[in-house]
């Protein structure tokens, strides 16, 4: 699907208000500019508290929400949006994806769940896709090594960057974990 095929789908929506919630300011601003070029009227928020305040004032028609924010969880923003505007088309972006969180996001009303860094065209496709349409499989899925590395990083973060606790939970030798953490992320 090309961008020109997607834009007419977006044109069917009268309200093009979009809330982008991400604590990575550089990514947030790049994404806001890209989405404005694609026809959205964007608002940004750096965290859960600011996003919930903006939703309380004016609930958007679309939302792009990062899962992990400095002051909480992006799912709280999705829930606040659903309470104020059930027809909002929201997607979750995350660098720490797992099936349980994806299921929770969808149950709370997110229409899609994308891995960071997500391409603006992929985000546009997710936001404008009809509910009955299935998402196409990724052209370049993560390698098994990358998936393993992402999982280790997620557990490491959940253990507050404690190597010993992470190694215990992963049933891995501490030194092996230290070597993995010292290396760059696989492609």
Automatic annotation (TrEMBL):
Q: Name one Pfam family in it.
A: Response_reg
This protein's source sits in the domain of life called Bacteria
Modification 4-aspartylphosphate occurs at: 66
Specify the protein name.
ActR/PrrA/RegA family redox response regulator transcription factor
| PANTHER family to which the protein is assigned, alphabetical | RESPONSE REGULATORY DOMAIN-CONTAINING PROTEIN, STRESS RESPONSE REGULATOR PROTEIN 1
**Boundaries of each Response regulatory domain copy?**
17-131
Write down the SMART domains for this protein, in alphabetical order: REC (SM00448)
Which source organism does the UniProt entry give? Answer: Roseibium polysiphoniae
The record's annotation in InterPro entries points to: ActR_PrrA_rreg (IPR047772), Bact_response_regulator (IPR050595), CheY-like_superfamily (IPR011006), Sig_transdc_resp-reg_receiver (IPR001789)
What keyword terms does UniProt attach to this protein?
Phosphoprotein, Transcription, Transcription regulation
